[in-house]
């Protein structure tokens, strides 16, 4: 089973307006509300692949209840730690070709929540083969919290796939408990290694991936958008090319890519199959309007068009 | 007891941003979520006056549950008809001195909800002395729905105070079941009588209030903002003047004015006391940042400054 972790989920509200009128009342009848948070997208991606998955993290209040109801509707298994404090909303206003977002910080939690969640998490680890961690921490949580999760997972020899950024990622990379896989984009990689990278030059990418701070991370997948990806798998380097696709909504594609990586590791697939699966899942998501959705009927068509080249 | 009716309540979310950046991500830590809807403000106003009050209407889903929790916190009694469909959110973005609002239409309900609510409403009428109806109807409800509510109230001789607008108000005024009181603003009055009014001229106002469509409405209070109000109480006309006040947040002042009118009728006060109480409550609300809040400690100070002059 794969355990996915979403520490600060949300109810995402999307409003479609012809025009957003500032300093006035905008009436909207086209409203969508969904359970959001990067880790929940990962969960959906794994679920589409028919691999057993359990979502955990922290939810609270009536917003948390809505998240549970939405996951029930999608037949997604979950076991959250439940607090008294309301989970957050994230608003996306779609208007005149724009997407204006308002992201709530979410509830401020305390040390008691930290401790209670760790106890909750430990109980879930018995039947878990892979863990994914995605997104940011709730207010009030220590920046090294993901290190704690990885340390506990290491006691059970469970590899952790970490998709985070900023201080949470940097702190984890400096700790003695390393994730098994990270999936930084170009900006995040620059922040980690503190130097410029030419993403069109494989030698520049290899040099970056040889940086000390990335030692002891077995798998690193750098997402390059329409240019595919570049990966270091143990000591081998791979350029991954993808076909040109009709991008409808790229939101969540990185999360679905992570879902593909987790599924592949869960199924003990080869490096080549893993990278092809992950890129195919990401593309399938980008071709759909709905965030976190993939049409698996198109899987084989696009899978065959992903090319992997080892760089020696 | 006063029964307040809010057919389409909401969870109001207020975001305070230094700047709203269009087509980008705006992160916000200053979020307020409250139970909203004009009728719930009326309920709060009555509650501040220590008169027994019960809120009803239709709520649903986790948003409806949040509304109940908020009313519990404010010690407000309620007995809603509960549907499966989620109640709505209304968003107010406060930015650079602007207030940009996004108002959801709310759930579309069906004939079964109409029937079920009417049954629910009938059961509540036994111990009710006054009813207030505020705001708009849910999608799917017939435009003459408030006529049904007034008709059922008339079987118990319960007067109904109606604060609505548009077709819902016009349809009610054309029906044989009239409200006991309406509280139109200048625009709504113009829409009702289909002619221009000079609100600075009492004769113009009297002429408007003698319009056929307003026959059989015992009490009509026209709110004139900082200029107070003009009222027809049976066949007497009153100019109501208020002192200059420091307006902090006028949202909800009309609702709190209606609360004052309902309280006064409940307590069988004189016309003069009724108008003074109502205007005082509205002013107290406008002087507070929090919508639907009044500081009753200031009541007597402002009550004494309201002047009522009968126009012969």
From TrEMBL, chains A, B:
One of its GO terms (biological process) is small molecule metabolic process. Keywords: ATP-binding, Kinase, Nucleotide-binding, Transferase. The keyword Transferase applies. One of its GO terms (molecular function) is phosphofructokinase activity. It holds the Pfam family PfkB. One of its GO terms (cellular component) is cytosol. InterPro entries: Carboh/pur_kinase_PfkB_CS, PfkB_dom, Ribokinase-like, Tagatose/fructose_Pkinase. SUPFAM superfamilies: Ribokinase-like (SSF53613). The keyword Ubl conjugation does not apply. Residues 8-292 form the Carbohydrate kinase PfkB domain. It comes from the Bacteria. Belongs to the carbohydrate kinase PfkB family. PANTHER family: 1-PHOSPHOFRUCTOKINASE (PTHR46566:SF5), 1-PHOSPHOFRUCTOKINASE-RELATED (PTHR46566). This is Phosphofructokinase. It comes from Gilliamella apicola. The lineage of its organism: Bacteria, Pseudomonadati, Pseudomonadota, Gammaproteobacteria, Orbales.
């Amino acid at each position: 089973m794969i355990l996915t972790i979403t520490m600060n989920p949300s109810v995402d509200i999307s409003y479609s307006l012809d025009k957003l009128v500032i300093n006035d009342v905008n009436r909207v009848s086209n409203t969508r509300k969904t359970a959001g948070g990067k880790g929940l997208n990962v969960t959906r991606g794994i679920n589409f692949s028919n691999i057993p998955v359990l979502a955990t993290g922290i939810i609270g209040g009536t917003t948390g209840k809505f998240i549970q109801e939405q996951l029930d509707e999608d037949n997604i298994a979950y076991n959250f730690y439940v607090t008294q404090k309301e989970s957050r909303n994230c608003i996306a206003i779609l208007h005149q070709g724009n997407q204006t977002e308002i992201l709530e910080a979410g509830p401020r939690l305390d040390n008691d929540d930290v401790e209670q969640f760790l106890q909750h998490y430990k109980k879930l680890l018995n039947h878990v083969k892979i863990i994914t961690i995605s997104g940011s921490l709730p207010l009030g949580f220590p920046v090294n919290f993901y290190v704690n999760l990885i340390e506990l997972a290491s006691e059970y020899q469970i590899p952790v796939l970490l998709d985070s950024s900023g201080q949470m990622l940097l702190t984890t990379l400096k700790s003695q408990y390393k994730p098994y896989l990270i999936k930084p984009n170009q900006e995040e990689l620059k922040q980690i290694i503190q130097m410029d990278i030419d993403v069109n030059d494989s030698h520049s990418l290899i040099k970056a991936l040889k940086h000390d701070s990335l030692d002891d991370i077995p798998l690193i997948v750098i997402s390059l958008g329409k240019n595919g990806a570049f990966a270091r798998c143990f000591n081998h380097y791979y350029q991954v090319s993808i076909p040109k696709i009709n991008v409808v909504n790229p939101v969540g594609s990185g999360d679905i890519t992570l879902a593909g990586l987790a599924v592949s590791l869960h199924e003990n697939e080869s490096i080549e199959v893993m990278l092809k699966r992950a890129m195919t899942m990401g593309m399938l998501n980008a071709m759909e309007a709905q965030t976190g959705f993939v049409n698996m009927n198109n899987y084989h068509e696009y899978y065959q068009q992903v090319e992997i080249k080892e760089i020696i």
